[in-house]
Amino acid sequence: MYWEFAADGTLLVARSYFLCDASCPPDYDRTYDDEVTIWRVGTALTKLLAGKDDTKLLDVDAGRILLRDPSKKLLVLNADRKQVGAVTPHEVGAPFMSGAAQVVGVSKGSKRCGC
């Protein structure tokens, strides 16, 4: 199992997953992240979302969580796991959030995330 983390202020979020490198049934011919789970980390782990295969944790900002689902849609959740926004960007780049407004940017050439 692998873990990734993103944080802003008092909100710490984790993504756990198993890496299937052509080794998981029934898809022995492809590489993907399996059993993706998004967690809020505090005094205990709180499960926010059981994501689809290959769901990525991209950013945390101003109490919100930015995810990319396998269809390349960007999802914005609040800390209570409620979806508060969704967009499918036309450009390929590194998505990020900025400030308390519902703003998601896609920056070409940014090294901000490895997605």
Question: What can you tell me about this protein's structure?
Answer:
The chain has a four-stranded antiparallel beta sheet with strand order 1-2-3-4, with no helix packed on it. The protein has a four-stranded antiparallel beta sheet with strand order 5-6-7-8, with no helix packed on it. The protein has one domain (2-107). The chain is globular, with a radius of gyration of 14 Å. With 115 residues, the protein is mainly β. The protein has no helices and ten strands.
Query: How are helices and strands ordered from N to C?
Result: EEEEEEEEEE
* Beta-strand fraction estimate: over 45%
Q: State the low-pLDDT regions, or none.
A: 110-115
Arrangement of strands in the largest sheet: 1-2-3-4
Structural class: mainly beta
Mean pLDDT score: 82
Number of domains: 1
Task: Output the radius of gyration.
Answer: 14 Å
Kindly state the percentage of residues in helix. Answer: under 10%
- Span between N and C termini? 18 Å
How would the global form be characterised?
A: globular
Strand tally is 10
* Helix count from the secondary structure assignment: 0
Describe the biggest sheet?
A: 4 strands, antiparallel
